[in-house]
Amino acid sequence: MLKEYYFDNSATSNPKPDIVIEKVTNVLKNLNGNPGRSAYNKAIKINREIFSVREKIAKFFNIKNPLEIAFTKNASESLNIAIKGCNFKNCHIITSVLEHNSVLRPLHYLEQEKNVALSFITPEISDEKLEKSILDKINENTKAIVINHISNVTGYIFNIDIIGNICKKHNILFIVDASQSAGFLDIDVIKSNIDILCFTGHKSLFGIQGIGGIYVNKSITIHPILEGGTGSFSKLERQPLVMPEALECGTLNTPGIISLGTGIDYINKIGLNNIQEHEIQLTNLFIENLKNIDDIIIYGELDIKRGPVVSINIKNIPSSELASILSEEYNICTRSGFHCAPLAHKFLKTYEIGTVRFSFGYKNTMEEINFATNKIKNIVNFINKRS
Ligand SMILES: Cc1ncc(COP(=O)(O)O)c(C=O)c1O
Questions:
Q1: By percentage, how much of the chain surpasses pLDDT 90?
Q2: How far is CA 81 from the centre of its chain?
Q3: CA-based, 20 to 30 A from 47: which of 66, 222, 368, 376?
Q4: Residues 6+ positions from 249 with CB-CB distance below 8 Å
Q5: Which residues contact 142 (CB under 8 A, 6 or more apart)?
Q6: How many CB atoms lie within 10 A of CB 86?
Q7: Domains in the chain, ordered, with CATH?
Q8: DSSP string, 204-223
Q9: Angle at 134 between CA 341 and CA 170, to 5 degrees
C-alpha cells in the first residue's frame, strides 16, 4: 500500500497523538458518567476532569477565570454564539475578506435581519497599513471587529495585537476566530485585548472532532442561542446567564473535552515554539521548492510570516483535477475548491477555479514535503509535454 502523505491539517489534524487516543479510550471505558448531573463517584470524577480541562485551556490562552470558557461542538458553533448572542442591531461591524463562512454567514444574518452594516478589510503587508485600513472604516456606529486570526486559504496572519489595541481605544468588541491559529501561535487574550475567543478542538489543538470552545470576557453578557438542561439552576424558567452554563446546554461531549485537554498537554510537552518552528520550516520548504516554477501560482505574499497553510494552482488545470491526481497517483491528501471562504477567493481571483490547499502539521516531515513538491513538478512537466 502507498504511504499516505497527509497535508490537510487545516481541515483536521492527523494523526491524533497516541496519548489523546489512549486517554479518550480510558475515559470511555472507566469514567463514562454524566458530568455535572449525578453524585456518584464516577460522575464526580469526570466532572473534576472536565474542570481541569477548563483550567488547561485558561492557562493556554491566559484567561484569568476558567469559568469564562464554555465548551461547544466546534468553532462554527462558538462563532454563531458570539455573533448572534451579543444583540447586535442597527450598528456597524468590521470584518475581513479572509473570513470563513462560519463568520460570514452569521454576519450576513445580522446584515439581513438586524440592520447591521458590514465593512471588510483586506490583508496588508505592513502593520501600519493594517492599522490605517481599520481606522478608516471605524465610525460612531461600529460595535465590533470580527477577525480570522490565520486564513485557512493563504495562511495570512492578522496582527491581533494591533487590532485588539484599536478595539480597546475605540471601545469596540473584539471577536477572534482562532480556528487556524490555536496550537500554532501563542494567543494571550489579555495582551491582545480579546473579548471573545472562538476555537475548535480538532485542528492544531489535537482533539477529536466535535469539540470546540468559546471564551467570553466577564464584562460581556452573551444571550444563549440554545436553552435546555444544565444540571444546575433547574428551577429557573429560562437558561441561566452565568458562564459557563449560559452556553452549555445538554450533556457535554466528555470524550471530546478530554481529548482537547490531552491535546493541550501534548502541545505543552513538545512546546508551542517547537511546533511552530517545525511547521514554519515545512511551509518555507514547500514554498521554496515551488516558487520559481512558472506554471505554479502560490497565493498570498511569500515574504511575510504565514500559518502552515499554502494554496496553489497549476495554470490551466482545475484545482479539483490536481487534487485528485495527487490523491490517486501518490496518496497525497490535500483539499481543493473553495475552502468555505468565498470572499478570500474573490480577493485572490480564484472565485471560479478554487485552489489546492496544502496544510502542514507537526507530524509532517521535510522528506514528505520534498516528495510532494517533486510530484507537483512532475505533473507540471507532464502537462507541458502534453500540450
Ligand atoms: C478559519 C476557520 N474558521 C472556522 C472554521 C470552522 O471550524 P469547525 O469546522 O471546527 O467549526 C474553520 C474550519 O475549517 C476555519 O478554517
A1: 94
A2: 15
A3: 222
A4: 224, 226, 227, 228, 229, 230, 239
A5: 91, 92, 93, 94, 170, 172
A6: 21
A7: 5-15+271-386 (3.90.1150.10), 18-269 (3.40.640.10)
A8: TT---TT-EEEEE-TT--PP
A9: 120
CA-closest candidate to residue 74, choices 50, 98, 94, 101: 101
Amino acid at the residue 331: N
Q: Which segments of the chain does DSSP mark as H helices, in order?
A: 18-30, 41-60, 75-84, 101-113, 127-137, 160-170, 254-270, 272-290, 319-330, 342-348, 366-386
Instruction: Inform me whether the pLDDT recorded for 140 exceeds 90.
Output: yes
Q: Which three cell numbers stand for residue 22?
A: 489512549
Instruction: Answer whether 200 contacts ligand 1 (Cβ < 6 A).
Output: yes
104-121 per-position pLDDT tens digit:
999 999 999 999 999 999
Ligand 1 center to residue 74 CA distance, Å? Answer: 8
Query: Which residues are within 8 A (CB) of 68 and not within 5 positions of it... i.e. 6 or more apart?
Result: 58, 215, 216, 217, 218, 243, 244
147 CA distance to ligand 1 middle (Å): 13
Phi, psi (5° rounding) for residue 215?
-105, 130
Mean model confidence pLDDT for the chain = 96
- Say how many C-beta atoms besides its own lie within 10 A of residue 321's C-beta: 13
**103 CA distance to ligand 1 centroid (A)?**
9
C-alpha 211 to ligand 1 mean position (Å): 12
204 lines ligand 1 (CB under 6 A): no
pLDDT at 357: 98
Query: Distance (Å, rounded) from C-alpha 107 to C-alpha 100?
Result: 11
Query: At 33, is the pLDDT very low, low, confident or very high (cuts 50, 70, 90)?
Result: confident
102 Cβ inside 6 Å of ligand 1? yes
Best CA proximity match to 260, nearest among 82, 33, 55? 55
The pLDDT value given to residue 1: 80
Please give the C-alpha separations between residue 50 and each of 3, 66, 71, 251, 253, in angstroms, as whole numbers: 37, 11, 10, 12, 10
Question: In whole angstroms, what is the distance from residue 153 CA to residue 359 CA?
Answer: 9
pLDDT digits (tens, 9 = 90+) for 88-109: 999 999 999 999 999 999 999 9
Look at the chain and count its residues.
Answer: 387
